Amino acid sequence: MKIHELTEEKMEIFESSDDDMDYIEHVERAVEVDTTVKQHNATEATNELGDQDGICKVLHWIIEPWPTPPKYEDSCPANDEEGPTMTTRQPKDPNLDSNSDLLTRTSWVDAKTAYREIKKGRAFGNTCALRLRGTLQKHLFNLGCCIQKHCGKVLFVGLLLLSLCCVGLKTATIETDVNKLWVEAGGRLEKELAYTKEKLGEGSGYTSQLIVQTPKLGTNVLSAESFRLHLKAVEAATKVTVDMYDIKWKFKDLCMPMTFPRFDNHLLDSILDNVLPCVIITPLDCFWEGSKLLGPDNPIAIPGMNRITWANLNPKQLVQELKDLEIPFPSDTIEEMLQRAGITSAYQEKPCLNPTDEDCPQTAPNYHDKQIPNVGSEVTGGCSGFASKYMHWEEDLIIGGAQKNKNGYIFRAGALQSIVRLMGEKNMYEHYLDDYKVNNIEWSQEAARKVLEKWQREYTSVVNKVLNETMQDNVYSFSSISLTDILEQFSEVSIVRVALGYCLMLVYAAISLLRWNDAIYSQSGIGIAGVLLVALSVAAGLGLCSVFQIGFNASTTQIIPFLALGLGVDDMFLIALTFAENSRKDDIPYMDQTGECLKRTGVSVLITSLSNACAFFMAAIIPIPALRAFALQAAILILFNLGSILLIYPAIISLDLMRRQEKRVDVFCCFEGSSANRVIELQSRPQSPPPEYREASPPPSYRDIHRHNTMTTLGPDGVHPVTVLVGENNDGARFHSAVSPSSLPPSATSSRQCLTPDEDQSCKDRCVQTQQECCKLSLTWFAKKVYGPLLQKASVKILVIILFSVLLAFGVWGTTKVKDGLELTDIVPRETTEYKFLETQSKYFGFFHIYAVTKDFDYPNNQQLLHKYHNAFLRVENIIKKEDGSLPDSWLILMRNWLLDLQRAFDRDYQLGCITRDRWYDNATEDGIFAYKLLIQTGDSDSPINRDLALTSRLVDSDGIINIDAFYIYLTAWTSNDAIAYDASMSDLTPVPREWLHLAEEVEFLIPRSQPLTYAQFPFYLNNMADTDEITSTIKQIRTICDTYVAKGLPTYPSGIPFTFWEQYLNLRFYLMLSLICVLGAVFMVITFILMNPWAAFMVVMVLAMTVVELFGFM
């Protein structure tokens, strides 16, 4: 057999291989033929050219391999991104493209072929992975072909379903309640807050509005001028009024007033209603000017006396004057109550900041000498309100950044702080429930909330005007509604920002997929359509999240749209670029284009999308609701994008394929495109070569593309080459030119080239050539020619390992230094007064109000345990204590002290004979009579009174234990008759104790018994809580105390803003580590299942883990 005949047989074998499934069998035959050709040519070459030339010819023919079918020719990268699954032992054919997909990315193109090669023993690899990948590719190919066949229907149904899901956005609600966003779902804090809400009701208690002042020049705010400015700011706050429901609401209508018992005396009750002030914690209480904040706005007119305001009121003197006027009222009771509360001369004996003020009282220490007081010495030790016993403000609460001299007096301070208290919405609703003020409106708790919110916003605006009017100091205000407004503002969807982000992506997609020199094969249209499809998928996914009741929050509105866009267009670009590569390949039939595109990219899209979705689902392990909602929403959106990219986007590219087929312009598909050159594929025919001639390996036939066989010869002039077309018969048989190979000149060659109508290059051709030359300097060129070879050098590998190890070591070290915490300043714009307030307040005060709550419990029999529990908080350094180092008195201590005072009064009256076993006389004191009524209470509903107990029992025993049997009767008496102390205790006893007012002239001994307590609290103030570490440390201390006493049988828990905001950080790192382990585990399982390669999955997971450590450490 001659050499050229064997070669013809080799070509015919491949040309007959129309079915890819028979490819392996044809290859076997081709290899046998090829071996014979090589041996024959080697022998001839050795005989004709000598030993040296013969050896070269032998080596040349030995390394020539058998060809690869054209279906797998492509220009894809040499390494499959999923990792190698097959390695072939066959050498390459120099006439084939070195980047042929079948040679370089066999499993990516057709895993089934790779699987068969391994089974034949001509390659080695992971057969399990190839078998699974082949199955996936088969289904993806069939899916793509089906979508291409019914692209219009698929697109219509897909867009319809996405649009229906978007309807769910109507039910979307943005959550701004901090408790619902930040409190651990299902944790103890959530249960504690639920218990508090159940017992007290939503909106109970009070809210604090804060005013902070700092100096603009210097570092000292302790001057009379600064205090007068502070007075101006706080006074402006107390003058704020708002109109709502056709009612004017003043500060006095909304504030927390001092409680005073009712006496069923119209004149006395009306005076008390007007004169009882709001509770304001301020350093101004050290001076007479503090009285200007208390009002009343309309001075009280009393017959025979001057008009009364707190600026000229001396409560002790007023009671005496009323007694002198012989106005009937329980003077003894009021005097005793005022004395017990420490209400004496109020502000009349305090120094005046401005002694020249005409209203400065003559009893002021500096009235006569007109000297400016030493502000620092006056505020040392704190300030007291009009009720000095229950309204003493420690210096840490009102003075920030204080510095003391060696004598213990403050000589420098960085800030002043005042706190204005308002009623909670529930308290306000109940306060005005039966009041004439709201008779004409539909009064509800919601209405009360709206009034409070409007007033707080107006308050912030008014106080901030003081800042704008002064150049002396900085004055910042903050209300409880400010935080809610910040969260609401931060949670609002910025339509402009989202639209701008998506428009930029549209522009990027259009430009990056644009081919300005080829309007037909340009892909801007599918790029724009892909971005719009991702946008619709994001909206549909969020709509489904709304239907599933996954609440929206700031992370949803600020992060999710852009995150989902980035993850979605990633797969879109992958499919679009693969489609662009395949669309110009003649070996892929037109109806298989979409299927082949999905076959090659679908597995990669599945791996990335499923890995990301599983990672976000695993991140939902973190129990913080805001983060959990974010993770779930991100996972759902990734799945929506996956469905859209694999089902709807192929329909879009199928329509674009139809546009190309019809030669329509990209984007403007109504216009037809044109091509400057008509490209004709040419193919050489085999000839009998001279000894030095080597025949090229012919490419296989194409089923759908017409081939032209050509031969290049010299023209008639013997100088210019000409190309001769060699045609085919009607039956497909190849016919040859009349020119015989022997007649060709020695310079004749075989070629494969393109014919154009004109031999001269057009302007467009030159532009295309220039663009191709410029495009060589691309990232692809850099990676292939520079970066890739560089990384293969041993020295570079060692350097990379060393640098990575150093980075990893720094990352591990950095993880130990990372601090927890999300400061409120992180979500507030820097140029706002809210940001400046939060920064200043955190720097100088770090003030928080907390409670130690006790639940349903046998209070009467466990009083000693309650006292020990209260005293245990002495160990918490950040709790503000009294000057003597003790804690503020609890409600139980205040009740006990009140009973001890009554007991002492009874003992005196009994020793004087004013009270006996059976009766009392007119000279008995009111407190003695009151004590007698309490002593004879048995606590037994069947026999409530026993007069013998007046002489045998004690209200409080020698151990400080209140009479256990009559405990709840005494509780009724204390809360009703010592209302100032009860109000100052802020205990919120629940159920609310019953009311019973003592009147000495009444001989009714029965006192109603209050219900057993199920809720009570001890209030504390925390200071110097500037950073998260300090706050969490204090939380741990308090939690340890609570847990200790829970173990002793006292059901208790702490409550307050620090626990709501910061307790999550106690276990955050544990949950973060747990979620990361689960995320990495999920990625490992996905990669292992799809690639069937645990080692590759392990390496990916290890790289991810080390990357996370480095990122976390460098934060």
Automatic annotation (TrEMBL):
Keywords linked to the UniProt accession: Glycoprotein, Membrane, Receptor, Transmembrane, Transmembrane helix
GO biological process terms held by the UniProt record: negative regulation of smoothened signaling pathway
Gene3D superfamilies the record matches: Multidrug efflux transporter AcrB transmembrane domain
Domain named SSD: residues: 494-655
Intracellular or extracellular location(s): Membrane
Ranges for region Disordered: 70-101, 682-704, 736-755
UniProt cross-references to Pfam families, sorted A to Z: Sterol-sensing (PF12349)
InterPro entries tied to this protein: HMGCR/SNAP/NPC1-like_SSD, SSD, TM_rcpt_patched
Membrane topology: Multi-pass membrane protein
Transmembrane segments: 495-514, 526-552, 558-580, 601-624, 630-655, 794-813, 1070-1091, 1096-1114
Entry GO CC: plasma membrane
Membrane recorded as keyword: yes
Annotated GO MF terms: hedgehog family protein binding; hedgehog receptor activity; smoothened binding
Compositionally biased tracts (Pro residues): 687-701
PANTHER family named in the record: PROTEIN PATCHED
Family from the record: Belongs to the patched family.
The protein's name: SSD domain-containing protein
Organism whose genome encodes this protein: Owenia fusiformis
Taxonomic lineage of the native organism: Eukaryota, Metazoa, Spiralia, Lophotrochozoa, Annelida
